[in-house]
Amino acid sequence: MQIGQVVLIVLGLPQVLLYFLGPNLVSWKAKKQPTVSKSSTEAEYRAIAYTVQDTLHIRSVLFELGWPISEPVHLLCDNISASYLTANPVQHARSKHIQIDYHFVRERVAHGDLIVQHVPTHLQLSDIFTKSLSSQRFHFLKDNLCVVSP
Q: Residue 85, exposed/middle/buried by CB under 10 A (0-12, 13-18, 19+)?
């Protein structure tokens, strides 16, 4: 493995992602998928789709830090069928339903079933789980989450 090469490993479900820069583990993530998959292939394929989105973000951060990744990213997946789906654009009877979820949100907005709204940064409740915060901001977000001591 060369320096500057990013290797992403998808290990089982819930998906566990390990991000390497050269031989060094630089980030990791464990995440349960928000949807129920009909097969292990679908579950792994969704995990790959999520990982690719995350990978694009990591590549842009590395580029901004002055470490552009010129080589293709290597994603290691333990599901052969899911790996084949990434290279085969032909839809098969058993895989055609997988693509539906990519357009689901857009359809729900068009039908009026969903409204996507902007949330100002200072009201973004998810920051409490993802950012280092001052105690004042932490307590503000905690209070808005309705979290209380037992």
A: buried
> 125 and 93: one domain?
no
Residue showing tokens 């940064």: 121
> What are the distances in angstroms from CA 77 to CA 51, 94, 113, 131?
11, 19, 35, 29
How many structural domains compose the chain?
2
Range of the domain at 127: 117-150
**Same domain (yes/no): 31, 97:** yes
In this structure, the strands spanning 24-31 and 15-21 are: antiparallel
Helix (H, G, I), strand (E, B) or coil at 137: helix
Please write the tens of the pLDDT for every residue from 38-71. 676 777 777 777 777 777 787 788 889 887 777 7
**pTM, rounded to two decimals:** 0.53
Q: Residue 142 and residue 124: Cα distance in Å, rounded?
A: 11
Q: Which string of b and e fits 23-54 if b means at least 16 CB within 10 Å?
A: eeeeeeeeeeeeeebeeebbbbbbbbebbeeb
